Amino acid sequence: MAFPILSVIVFTPIIAGMIILMMPGERKTEIRMVALAAAAFDLILSVWLYFAYDITAAGYQFQEMHSWLPSFGIGYHLGVDGISTPLILLTGVVMFTGVIVSQSISDRPREFFAFLFILATGVFGVFASLDLFLLFFFYEIAVFPMYLLISIWGWVKTREYAAMKLTLYLFIGSVIALIGALAMYWASGAHSFDLLVLEKAHFSTAFQNTWFMPVFMGFAILGAIFPFHNWSPDGHVAAPTAVSMFHAGVLMKLGAFAALRVGIMLMPQGAIYWKWVILGLAAVNIVYGAFIAMVQTDLKYVIGFSSVSHMGLVMIGFATLTRSGLIGSTVQMFSHGIMTALFFASVGMIYNQTHTREISRLGGFVKVMPFTAIAFIIGALVSMGMPGFSGFVAEFPIFMGLWQTAPIIAILSVISIIVTAAYMLLVIRRVFFGEMPEEFAGRMNDVSVMDKVALGLISILMVGIGLFPSLMVPMVSSGVDHILALLG
Amino acid sequence: MTFSFTSSMIMAVLPEILLLLLGIIVLIVDLLLKEEKRRNLGWLTAGGLLTILIVSLLVARPSEAELVWGGMVRYDGMGFFFKMLFIFAAAMTSLFMMDHKALGHRGEAYLLLLASTLGMSLMASASDIIMLYLAIETTSIPLYILAGFMTGDDRSTEAGFKYLLFGALTSTVMLYGLSLLYGFSGGVTNIYEIGELVASGALAPLLVAGVAMLILVGIGFKVSIFPFHFWAPDVYDGSPTPISGFLSTASKAAGFAILLRLFLVAFPQISLSWSLLLAVMATLAMTLGNLVAMAQTNIKRLLAYSSIAHAGYAMIGLVAVSELGTTSTIFYLMAYILTNLAAFGIVAAVSHVTGSDEIKDYSGLSRRSPGLALAMLVAFLSLAGMPPFGGFVAKVFVFAAAMEANLVWLVVVGVLNSIVGVFYYLTVLKYVYLYRMEDEDEEKHPIPLSLSYAIALTVLSIGILLVGTLFAPWFGFSGAAAIALF
Amino acid sequence: MNFVASHLLTTILLFPIFSAVVLLFLPKNETKLLRWTALVASLIPFGLSIWLWVSFQSGTPGFQFQEQYTWYAAIGSSFHLGVDGLSLTMVLLTTLLTPLAILASFSITDRVKPYMMLFLFLETGMLGVFLALDLLIFFLFWEIGLVPMYFLINQWGGENRNYASLKFLLYTMAGSLGLLLSIQLLGVLFQSYDLPLLYERWSSVQGSLLGLPVATVKTVAFWAFAIAFAIKVPIWPFHTWLPDAHTEAPTAGSMLLAGVLLKLGAYGFLRLVIPLYPVEAHRYAGILAFLAVMSIIFGAFASYGQDDFKRLVAYSSINHMGFVMLGVAVAARAAGTLDAHIAVDGAVLQMFNHGISAAAMFFLVGVIYERAHTRDLNAFGGLFPIVPVYGGILIFVSMASLGLPTLNGFVSEFLVVRGSWPIFPFLTALGMLGLLFTGAYILKGIKKILHGPMNEDWVGHLTDISTREILVVTPLMILFLVIGLWPAWILDVINKAVMVLF
Questions:
Q1: Helices C146-156, C112-131: crossing angle, 10 deg rounding
Q2: What is residue C109's three-state secondary structure?
Q3: Mean pLDDT in residue range B22-43
Q4: Which of C410, C288, C153 is nearest to A425 (CA)?
Q5: What is the pLDDT of residue B94?
Q6: How far apart are CA B65 and CA B120, in angstroms?
Q7: pLDDT over 70 (residue B1)
Q8: What's the pLDDT tens digit per position in C434-476?
Q9: Which residues from B are below 8 Å from A31, CB to CB?
């Protein structure tokens, strides 16, 4: 039997988490080292997976299949295609960088890393699942540690409220989608939760039209689709740095990914039927998110709402149901994932020293943390879709897809680019340039070498994909071909 | 019907016989031990129960279902499966009882627990309405006493008295229904024969429906489903905590066992009308249980209301009236027994040290006892229906059964309710993990765990995890039990 | 060398970025080392582009030195480079001005490393636009060039730099949105962004698009392109970002901004708008010509009204770029005629000329500003005796800018006017009025600074222009003369390309 790389990737975090839980709580340094080692190991494996994926063969690869509950059609079936492989890499990157920037956690680091790693297992699992039940299983595992992570290690002022709001929103979304999944299970008549079987189930049009929306929206809540986006910025703000990174970087992708894999891929007719609704909602996301981000005064809220805006682009790309739109969305998931992880990491580095995120109280940090400033600027350029950065590689095809389906929405949504540019530049100028307020002058230190490694890694990825789209696009494209085949 | 003695007759009641034996042993050892050593009776009881469990699993597993003892008892997979559950629950409960101030050193408490377990075992396999009634009373009477065991404590006395009062009242109503059934059927008391009579039309459906209502009162009380739930919070609150745990798990599951047998076997013909009724009851139980639980400040009352809600979830599977539905209900009960026992066990462990059941006194628990907090996380997340714990799969199965029966509305209700559930379970975890003690000096207030608690909680936590991840065998057992019913 | 020869364009394009990365690893306090490295690094692309100029076969029509690599295959975009006479001139201009700008920046002491790196980035961005033969690559460099400029203004600019830099960036980006959308539309239609291919196919599209008649779509797309480039040029009334940006930019930034960045817009018109939309361009040429003339006139008037020396020069750019646009408009209206060829020859030469003369002017403004720390014309006066060399150079450069015969400006402006006269007689006449004012504002500038009563405050405070600074401006002055006296060497190359294109 081949090396079960996917299982290893998925379960490494949770096993590391259990090991950490068994370590004595006061040995904080050792705990951190174990966490870092596990994260590095997973990153290496996901990089290896990324390059081992055979693009020419396409399809689902590295499949692992074991029976789990055969009488009910539940199997332990893992596998990745051109869509999920980049997302696994994304998770590996975010996990690694997230662990790096969490080295400063001093309150119960043992529990922190354990919960964070449970979350990571859930995320990896969703991306690698080829069984609907398994997908839900991991999906929920990814949700509940968020509650604890935010409410325990979050920002004192809003953490309880935000954590509960987030959990309830996500839980509502997932159980609604679960109902749809069960409906599919029975309607397929195949008595199987296997996604590959369900893909070929050819549900009746009436069924798809009824059930597409609950399933898609249930997952899309986690992708912060309008009008269910409200939990997201609050959650970002309240969460500790690494959790914000995970949350915006990976978790929101989880929603979008599941909406694609379960919603669109299993019920393509339903997707065609409802696409205008999604296009409309996602357009609101894009534009509204950008404008709201513009008027925020808290740095994390700016990024939180910008995430809402960018996730709108992902959703809208899906809803175009075109080749370029889907390619763009997938690349956008990756690009936005690392970009926003970088943002939150930078904000965390600033906040650790200033204990404020009020933009008006910050300034001049380029002098003390130049590396962070440059990384943030690169992130901002990605965010505004500047050519030569990964954001452009993602957004451009999305808009091409929009032109093919809804030109008017393309024209409306494009406004967001300029708004994004405006608020990003304002933030950069106010936070990193200008005069440093007196209260911080002389008290600030540069970030640590490890932090620089984290920021540098992400920056290189963003520029690399921006300059060489062929690093990622052919793989994504192979995955999209399969979706297009399902769409007919 | 000629009377002939077969080995399966012994095997059918082997667990009961062994339980009786264990009771006698406990009684004797109780006399031999000095007062301060009597705590060890818990070890004896638990060990004995586990032995019974293993022995029964080894020798007394039924193959073909058959009626024995003149049709009084049905020797089948379903009864056997429930018996094993009850015995396991009783073993855990006896471990929890050991450190309880009022119960731990009292031999009769363990004896009563065993007696009640004996009754439950008979409930699970009773196939005759007379046997059924006797079994119910055998179960209930020891529990009345156990609930009011802390004679010095007003609330415990009140709990015992209340439980007795409502129990007597509802069982009277049920007895009335059973006697009517006896009359209508012309003296036929075997449930399976009654089922045939109903199927052949010899019994008027309307009459049966009326009778079923009366019987439902009694069973509804046992499973504490709406509208027969109101005793539960007060009784759970007042009873000694291990007993509350036992009441809310084994006793409830026993109620479900007869509910399944009676309604699926005796009255399948009228299933349409009663399944709607049960669906409504389930809906109200879930909704009311969850909504009221949100407002609780006492953890035992919270768990009491949540257990009302869980009875509602479990009933969803029953309402589906299908093989999968029955399987899922049984699976749900299994997961629920593990989970809720753990929850009450933790409450017992905490209150043993802090002397309080108020939720706010759980502040800082994760710093006072990380292990206990982790167990609580497992139990409460399982209650909330989160993977990888048993509660998640169990909920998925009951919902799946309801979807199969096209009961989308019921699933929606269930789903909405589980969201409410998530809210208040997480609220409790917030106290455990987030809030701190007033002086923030948790290190000075550790919560030590005695060995018996540690063992029981570890076993239960692992069980919750096993049921939630490697669920295939458990699902297989539940399915076999469900098939054996018919 | 073989590699460089076969990848000449890529080498020219990417060398600055490569050197910027090298710069990154140099110690940040070694300012001298950083400066010289940057200078040398920027001289190499200049040398290479001279090589390019020499080996360019001006007689051969079409694009030369083409290189094509896969880039973004999924949407049909490739990394396609190539030059013709038009872009070659611009490449030469860019690679010439960048080393001069870097040399001019030797006076910068604050954060030299990022400053020099940004300049090199900027050079690549500008070169990319001129070299790209793929619409998406064109757009990529078009946008990316904004970023270094933004930071140059924002970080090393004057007092009001925040406002000015943001305005600069947002104006250009907002202008590009329509361009972006139109490019996407083209991409969706043809699944390719290759320019030679688009030239052919786009103009032959018939029927309806997106449910609208194709003519309507094309008209909208034409304006989307036109506005994006018009903002960059800038032509009246899209010019308001320019004076702010110039005023706040550091000297070398202004040099490149006026010298090269403005040319990007005009180049866009010539490279994309007219070839892609010949019909629409013909139809709306009148409007373009009108706007161009308005730029000439208003630019001159506004320039005359300034008291800030740098603003004065900034507005003069609008005035001069108006002539370029006038040439473009002529080409749009009368493509294929001799008039058009003459006008475009003039326009392209004017782009080159304005590039070097504006750079020189801004540099001279910077020279005096660095010494006096003011640019208020009223604060100066009678400085000729104090800074005689500077005065002489200023007068010489001003004359070039003014369009004095025998200097470069005259040749190009004459050609534009000659070409446009038969096509837009009335507007051309109006434009001549503007030309008159060009003389007025330049003379005003010279008068206010060098002549009149001497402002005694400056005696002893002002030093004359330094050798390094003379070194910056000398090559430009030589070029003024060379082009003014013997324009054929450059006009020949331009004309050959123009004959093919228009």
A1: 150
A2: coil
A3: 88
A4: C153
A5: 92
A6: 19
A7: no
A8: 778 888 888 888 888 888 777 777 777 778 888 888 888 888 8
A9: none
pLDDT at A296: 87
Q: How far is A15 from chain C (nearest CA, A)?
A: 39
Torsions phi, psi for A65 (to 5 deg): -135, 120
Which of B303, B329, B324, B300 is CA-nearest to residue B314? B329
What CA dihedral angle connects B161, B164, B165 and B166, to 10 degrees?
A: 120
Whether B115 and B138 have beta carbons less than 8 Å apart is answered as: yes
Q: What is the dihedral of CA B230, B236, B238, B242, to 10 degrees?
A: 170
pLDDT band at residue B83 using 50, 70 and 90 as cut-offs: very high
- Of B266, B289, B311, which residue constitutes the final position of a domain? B266
CB environment C128-163: b (16+ within 10 A), e (fewer): bbbbbbbbbbbbbbbbbbbbbbbbbbbbbbeeebbe
Is residue B324 located within the same domain as residue B186? Answer: no
Across the interface, do B399 and A182 touch by the CB < 8 Å criterion? yes
For residues C381 and C455, is the Cβ–Cβ distance under 8 A?
Answer: yes
Chain A residues lying within 8 Å of C136, measured CB to CB: 387, 396
pLDDT at A40 over 90: yes
Task: Look at residues B240, B266, B292 and tell me which one is the last residue of a structural domain.
Answer: B266
Residue with tokens 């597409």: A212
| H or E element that contains C70 | strand C64-72
Q: Is A447 helix (H, G, I), strand (E, B) or coil?
A: coil
Note down the domain range covering B434.
Answer: 269-486
State pLDDT tens for residues B417-447. 998 998 899 889 888 888 888 877 777 888 8
**Could you tell me if B208 and B252 are in contact, meaning their C-beta atoms sit under 8 angstroms apart?**
no
The Cα B48–Cα B90 span in angstroms is 11
**Distance of alpha carbon B177 from its chain centroid, rounded?**
24
CB atoms within 10 A of CB B357: 21
A192 near B CB under 8 A: no
Angle among Cα C168, C173, C175 to the nearest 5 degrees reads 100
**Domain shared by B94 and B170, yes or no:** yes
Determine contact, residues A206/A137, Cβ cutoff 8 Å: no
pLDDT in tens, B168-223: 999 999 999 888 888 888 888 888 888 888 878 777 777 888 888 888 888 888 88
Q: Does C166 touch chain A (CB under 8 A)?
A: yes
Question: What is the reported pLDDT for C308?
Answer: 84
Number of structural domains found in chain B: 2
ipTM above 0.90, yes or no: no
- pLDDT above 70 (res C392): yes
> Are B246 and B327 members of one domain?
no
d(CA B282, CA B290): 12
| Extents of the domains making up chain C | 1-249, 277-502
CA dist B20 and B15 (Å) reads 9
The burial of C237, by beta-carbon neighbours within 10 Å (0-12 exposed, 13-18 middle, 19 or more buried), is given as exposed
The predicted model gives A215-219 an average pLDDT of 90
Chains C and B share 3 or more Cβ pairs within 8 Å:
no
Within this chain, do residues B262 and B275 fall inside the same structural domain, yes or no? no
- CA-based nearest distance A470→chain C, Å: 6
Chain C hits for A414, Cβ within 8 Å:
177, 180-181
State how beta strands A74-80 and A61-69 pair: antiparallel
CA C104, C107, C108, C113 dihedral sign is positive
pLDDT of residue B269: 62
Q: Would you call A404 and C181 a contact, using CB atoms and an 8 Å cutoff? A: no
- The average pLDDT across A29-58 equals 90
B298: DSSP letter: B
Q: Do B160 and B307 lie in a common domain?
A: no
Q: Do A469 and C74 touch (CB under 8 A)?
A: yes
Contact status, residue B170 vs residue B177, Cβ threshold 8 Å: no
pTM across the whole model: 0.89
Q: Is the peptide bond before A227 cis (omega within 30 degrees of 0)?
A: yes
